[in-house]
């Protein structure tokens, strides 16, 4: 274990300096959500690819409906029906109209679409409120229609290329693919794209005292909440998370479990067993992994991480609260990054937000790997105390309208209930031992 006291910033910098984005792969659209594009995508064909109607109504020539009113409607001969997807289009000549549905192509000769509500719907009566179904009223595609209002050229017509034109840039490299971007790619006919994949993150907790939720809770036992919280946090960050059941306090079992999981891991996260207790086996197990998994040049795995400890994972003391004990390095033949977090629930989650989440998003090639930060006014009944020389992260709730933040719960690293009601972290700098109510503070937004 390193005797150096690491700052939060130096520890994070060391982690991010050792992690590289995953190699790009080609994924089908259904699998690419949340991934980052590594190529510019251009439009192969115009969108929409043809002039089409934006309304249910009648395709007409402008001259035929000019001056039409309810008192003196334009009476046109209906020459056919055009449904969305239709290919055999009736031509619209002088004095003629064609029934047309939303999304259907504009027929030859037509210049505009008159909504059905501006017509009698072919019934010979007053203004229509809907269009009769073609199947139930075949005759509606023929006969006459009375049109009560004029229409300008291009009215209710989506022109070819009005969304994007052929050759236009649809999405630039570096774009994160959310639902609208996936929809655009599908609309221009792209079935697959080159992206950086979502990283596979294996999360495992350690401790013989841990019981899985749903099982009976024996004397001296607690439920394993960390692995569930961290796996959920990994998914929230954009990763594919694999949660491993709690591993008992046995270095050999833990080491074997980690080695078994490396086949499906781009990043390993452990929680618990990194302090100075007699049963903190993570350090023992990972030090042995480091000794047996050397680099290609004979150096220990993870020696490029800045640990200089002669093992794959360096265990450190950080000038922070909660989360003072931390571990970072690489394990296995592929030098898979591993972050070892403390076992107290709040310490574990805060450590994830500060160190693991940026690592995950770096693997993804995200343009911004950090949570947003704002300044806010501290709303509290009494001063907030903090140990000198440590950067403290307190849980809080942020009110963006008031620009204020309120602490939630105390400073204990076991207070899971308070954490569940927080949506931010209040940062108390190392040099400050007290923050007065009304003080201007830095806030890390978690939502």
Count of separate DSSP helical elements: 8
Distance between the termini: 34 Å
Q: Main sheet: which strands, in order across?
A: 1-19-21-22-18-14-17
Average residue pLDDT: 88
Strand fraction equals 25-35%
DSSP E strands, number: 29
Reported for the largest beta sheet, the result is: 7 strands, mixed
Secondary-structure-based class equals alpha/beta
Oligomer: single chain
Runs with pLDDT <50, length 5+?
A: 290-311
Radius of gyration: 32 Å
Instruction: Give the helix proportion (percent range).
Output: 10-25%
Shape: elongated
Description of the structure:
The chain is an alpha/beta fold and 447 residues long. The protein has helices at residues 8-18, 62-65, 179-187, 226-237, 251-261, 281-292, 345-363, 416-420; strands at residues 5-6, 25-28, 36-37, 41-42, 52-53, 57-60, 74-82, 96-100, 112-115, 144-147, 157-158, 169-171, 192-196, 200-206, 210-211, 222-223, 240-247, 267-271, 313-318, 320-321, 325-331, 336-341, 373-378, 384-385, 391-399, 404-407, 424-428, 434-435, 440-445. Helix 4 (226-237) runs parallel beside helix 7 (345-363). A hairpin with a 4-residue loop joins strand 21 and strand 22. The longest helix is centred in the C-terminal third of the chain and has 19 residues, at 345-363. Helix content is 19%, strand content 28%. The chain has 8 helices and 29 strands. Residues 290-311 have low confidence and may be disordered. The chain has a 7-stranded mixed β-sheet, sandwiched between helices. The radius of gyration is 32 Å and the shape is elongated.
């Amino acid at each position: 274990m390193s005797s150096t006291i690491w700052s939060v910033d130096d520890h994070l910098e060391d982690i991010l300096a050792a992690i590289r984005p995953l190699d790009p792969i080609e994924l089908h659209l259904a699998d690419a959500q949340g991934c980052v594009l590594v190529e510019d995508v251009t439009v192969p064909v115009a969108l929409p690819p043809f002039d089409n109607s934006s309304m249910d109504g009648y395709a007409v020539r402008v001259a035929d409906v000019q001056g039409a009113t309810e008192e003196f409607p334009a009476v046109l001969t209906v020459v056919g029906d055009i449904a969305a997807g239709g290919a055999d289009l009736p031509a619209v000549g002088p004095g003629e109209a064609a029934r047309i549905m939303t999304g259907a192509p504009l027929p030859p000769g037509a210049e505009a679409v008159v909504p059905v509500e501006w017509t009698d719907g072919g019934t010979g009566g007053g203004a229509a409120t809907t269009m009769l179904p073609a199947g139930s009223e075949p005759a509606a595609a023929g006969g006459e229609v009375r049109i009560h209002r004029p229409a300008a050229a291009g009215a209710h017509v989506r022109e070819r290329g009005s969304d994007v034109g052929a050759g236009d840039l649809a999405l630039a490299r570096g774009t994160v693919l959310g639902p609208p971007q996936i929809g655009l790619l599908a609309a221009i006919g792209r079935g697959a794209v080159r992206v950086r994949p979502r990283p596979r993150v294996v999360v495992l907790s350690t401790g013989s005292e841990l019981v899985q939720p749903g099982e009976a809770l024996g004397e001296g036992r607690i439920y394993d909440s960390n692995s569930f919280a961290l796996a959920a946090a990994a998914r929230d960050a954009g990763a594919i998370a694999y949660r491993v059941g709690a591993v008992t306090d046995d270095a050999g079992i833990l080491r074997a479990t980690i080695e078994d999981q490396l086949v499906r891991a781009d990043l390993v996260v452990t929680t618990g067993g990194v302090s100075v207790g007699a049963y903190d086996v993570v350090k023992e197990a990972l030090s042995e992994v480091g000794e047996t998994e050397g680099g290609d040049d004979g150096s220990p795995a993870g020696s490029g991480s800045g640990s200089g400890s002669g093992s794959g994972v360096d265990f450190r003391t950080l000038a922070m609260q909660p989360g003072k004990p931390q571990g970072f390095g690489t394990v296995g033949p592929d030098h898979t990054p591993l972050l070892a977090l403390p076992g107290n629930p709040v310490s574990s989650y805060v450590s994830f937000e500060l160190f693991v989440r940026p690592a995950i998003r770096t693997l993804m090639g995200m343009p911004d790997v950090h949570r947003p930060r704002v300044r806010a006014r501290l709303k509290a009944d009494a001063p907030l105390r903090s140990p000198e020389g440590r950067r403290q992260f307190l849980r809080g709730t942020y009110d963006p309208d008031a620009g204020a933040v309120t602490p939630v719960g105390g400073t204990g690293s076991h207070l899971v209930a308070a954490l569940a009601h927080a949506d931010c972290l209040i940062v108390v700098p190392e040099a400050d031992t007290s923050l007065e109510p009304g003080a201007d503070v830095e806030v890390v937004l978690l939502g």
